[in-house]
Amino acid sequence: MVRLARILLLGVALLASSGTLWATCVDVIGVSGWKYLDSRTIVLYVGSRAYAVIQVAGCIVLSTSQIRFTKTFICPGDSIIVDNMDCLITRITRL
User: What is the pTM of this model?
Assistant: First the structure.
């Protein structure tokens, strides 16, 4: 019984350390626009309210970029399309 508890505790610790258990995900169905912060960071808006900050890797975001979502519910590790290039979402902060 003690051995099983240790194995379960180790499994939970591994999941938590990988970030999958605590990742912030957002629903982008209601997103009405976005604002450029820097070449890797955008702010998503729902109406006039800032909703989430997204950081990406693998591409450069410009203030004139076209952004498309590949899914309606996005998490770190998913991708978005920026100017027809696949970009990895590295961090999402819900506001």
Answer: 0.75
